């Protein structure tokens, strides 16, 4: 059965010390009635039990709790699973709208999103929604280029999706795609507040993103899989780590992060498999299903990253 997408997600989250420590203490979530919260806590305690001499632990009870949303058998994406898991844990752990959960304390950041929407008129208005997204809409007037509405909103995020360049059209003499190198800070420019992203759904707009608050743990998702009218393809690019050198006055680059987990996809989009590199006590390990082996840090950067978790330096 294809459970590697669950394994790499759990192994990655287990590197997040505050999250791990929270679930190691049963009293922290004793009041919660959610089976998912308790099964995740039990799994965390199994993995980190001081007297557990087994080479592996059974996630059976936890898998039973997630089977309502994810079928164990068909291959799923770690991004979809981790996104669902974090949002469900937050929802079940939150005691009130004003009290953040351990999920938000670890992973929540904030984005400023500025949309330029054509052919929309109106007046300036402020509005909030139940998810904490604050909007300011300035309606354009007149004709021509003035008939554009500027919509500015602040929204929370748990992950950042990074757009990779399209895969190369031509292959080399060995009939393989030429694999260029793309520095991570190049694709992070999407969130510099100046780079424009054009979208057509749900409506045509030009969007600029700016990170206004960085979380303690930053999850990056490389949008590596694309679909056209005929088949799904995988972008074969890999990313260089770490983040760029901080620059004075630049909010985006002010904090330094260290990589603690790197999820990798190998093979074809619909038939491939996932493995993960995790850091522990300054050593790196490669995990694929039940196989665990120590690896060199240089090997982590030579992999086609799919998801990464960074820890902010103290």
UniProtKB/TrEMBL annotation:
Gene3D superfamilies: Cysteine proteinases. Pfam families: UCH. GO terms for biological process: protein deubiquitination. GO terms for molecular function: cysteine-type deubiquitinase activity. InterPro entries: Papain-like_cys_pep_sf (IPR038765), Peptidase_C19_UCH (IPR001394), Ub_carboxyl-term_hydrolase (IPR050185), USP (IPR028889). SUPFAM superfamilies: Cysteine proteinases. Residues 1-313 form the USP domain. PANTHER family: U4_U6.U5 TRI-SNRNP-ASSOCIATED PROTEIN 2, UBIQUITIN CARBOXYL-TERMINAL HYDROLASE. This is USP domain-containing protein. It comes from Dipteronia dyeriana.
